Amino acid sequence: MDDRRKRSRVRTRFPGVVFCGGDDFSIATENLSLKGALCEVLDESVDGLVGEPCIMRITLSESAVIEVSGIIARAEGQVLAVDFENMDPDSYAHLRNVVRLMAEDADLIDEEQLTGGFGDEDDADFER
């Protein structure tokens, strides 16, 4: 498959929760980028949520939490992908640090911050 992604993804396994439509879903991240996340839903199916706004909270440690608002880009069974839209500066700093630390090429992550791509449909194409 042709990889059209504009953001590097790193494999992760952090616990979290996604709040969407009055429900909350326990998740574990599978991969993260500066633009989104692919997650395993731990407690129930999430079919039918594509396009819905959500809040995702990823717990890195007791004192480090990433909280981001986004749109559900994929929701199939126990698989959920979120396209990030907005986060506070502290959350972005935590996300950037995690992605840089786990990336094969941290300099590439820095370059990605300087390029466009946010809001492009290709960024919502999350796969395992």
Automatic annotation (TrEMBL):
All copies of domain PilZ, residue ranges: 3-99
Regions annotated as coiled coil: none
SUPFAM superfamilies noted in UniProt: PilZ domain-like (SSF141371)
Organism per entry: Desulfobaculum xiamenense
Domain of life: Bacteria
Protein's UniProt name: PilZ domain-containing protein
GO molecular function terms noted in the UniProt entry: cyclic-di-GMP binding
